[in-house]
Amino acid sequence: MKQQVKQWWQQASGLLLPVLHRYRAVLIVLLAGILLLGSGGWFGGAQPEENAPVQQEEEFALQAFEQKLQERLGAIEGAGRVQLMLSLEQTGESVYAVDARQNTNSDSSRSYESSLAVVSDGSYGEKPITVKNLLPTFRGAVILCEGADDAQVRLAVTRAVGTVCGLGADKITVLKMKAEA
Question: Above 70 in pLDDT, residue 7?
Fold first, then answer.
């Protein structure tokens, strides 16, 4: 029996060794992949914590946005004091998931039934599943700044507001602020 096993091993190794030598790079990559898949996060992979707080969706607050942008515009060289007013085309909105069912009646007519998809919050309450939140669309901007008499300052302020708000230069007006007495 030992002799037969020894003989079989010699035949198998004679056939396998050239194949293993030829495809060793492929086998190494394959084994590394299997090891990584089998490790199951042993190497410090990011695991969500069970008690991690759920991030709340931030609602768009126009005044806070204007204040932040006003501060940034005031940091532009030569702009001086800045006052900003933005107008909205439409406010932001949330798009919710909907469950839709098609009903076929006996008289071959079809009707559709839909309901808002909800998820339980764990404390006997339900809230709708949000698919996406659409940010508001801006209509235009008026900026008053002390340095508006300089064309470079006007251009810099116009570009900054246009970039942040997605407005074209024709929708942005930069005016010289009245000097305080």
Answer: yes
